[in-house]
Amino acid sequence: MTVDDTRVTRPTLARCTRDTPVAEMYEHYRRDGGVIVEGILSPEDLAAINAEIDPHMALRAPGPRRSADASVEFHGAQTRRLRDLFNLSPTFRDRLIADPVLLDLVDAIMLPWAGSYWLTSTDLIQIGPGNKAQVLHRDQEAWEYFSDAGADQLEVVCNAFYALTDFTDANGATRVIPGSHRWEDYSETGTPEMTIPAEMPAGSMLMFSGKIVHGGGANRTADEERRGLAIPFNLGWLMPMDAHPFMIDRALAKTLHPRVQRLVGFRSHPVGLYGTNMWHVDYQELGEYLGMDGEAVGGTRGAPGFAE
Ligand SMILES: O=C(O)CCC(=O)C(=O)O
Ligand SMILES: [Fe+2]
Questions:
Q1: Is there an atom of ligand 1 within 6 Å of 268 CB?
Q2: For 11-45, what is each residue's pLDDT tens digit?
Q3: Dihedral sign, CA of 12, 18, 21, 26?
Q4: Distance (Å, rounded) from C-alpha 283 to C-alpha 276?
Q5: Is the beta carbon of 214 within 6 A of some atom in ligand 1?
Q6: CATH no., domain 15-242
Q7: 242: alpha, beta or left? (left if phi > 0; alpha if psi -120 to 50)
Q8: How many Å apart are CA 226 and CA 170, to the nearest integer?
Q9: Could you tell which of 36, 132, 134 is best to mutate to test the pocket of ligand 1, judged by most ligand atoms within 8 Å of the CB?
Q10: Contact 57/126 with Cβ under 8 angstroms?
Q11: Residue 158 to residue 150: CA distance in whole angstroms
Q12: Whole-model pTM?
């Protein structure tokens, strides 16, 4: 398969299913800056996650809560957000985040650039009726330097955005500008007219690049809540947002899949410097030091088949 390297904006995003080969998903992602994977969650897992989240969401007021929260334009005045999914949802921590289809796709995106990657955060974003469209942005702006560096540099962050309810144009489906990862000038974030809604049925996932312009859509319905789950991943040598090693109890971490343990800081990160680990204890692999069962897995720079 060859990569279409034109700078022409495509008016749409490709749709795959969880049976589509990951290499093909990745090709779509590279060309358009994002790809939709329909039905990545089973109906059972979707229902279980929603049921686990419901009681916590019911207690959460809309709008920013703390001084450290983003501005109201970014957070959303009628938007409820919940972080800390590892403690709130067993189905999230044991199934959604440990899904090899998800992690193989993130490997394809991130490993050409670093030996490992972190889970940046878990962000449940429930957009309520009347919420205005979110300000258009690129997620990599969180690591300021990269936006000045422009398009021709590495992938800093990719965002796996799960629809936990149906995403429609009317209820606030994420808006994206396909192809905006290839723009010359990253100070440009386009206009709302250039965006398309990532409409998708509940249980689907939109994987999009930190370089693509996007934002939550306006919820123009009278009574529909749009529930999404953002789980971004950033390169191993950049700082993540959520302080997971301080949020997840060590006993709980022991129950996680080894691939997931590393995402949240309970395993070392292999790097290219003569086989050295980063995030270790006196040269000992962190998982070993902490008594995590099983082998540290994955994390080879330039996963086979996905080299540039
Ligand atoms: O809620 C959405 O659809 C997008 C949210 C988003 O892009 C963000 O908060 O960074
Ligand atoms: Fe975003």
A1: no
A2: 789 999 999 999 999 999 999 999 999 999 999 99
A3: positive
A4: 8
A5: yes
A6: 2.60.120.620
A7: beta
A8: 10
A9: 134
A10: yes
A11: 16
A12: 0.92
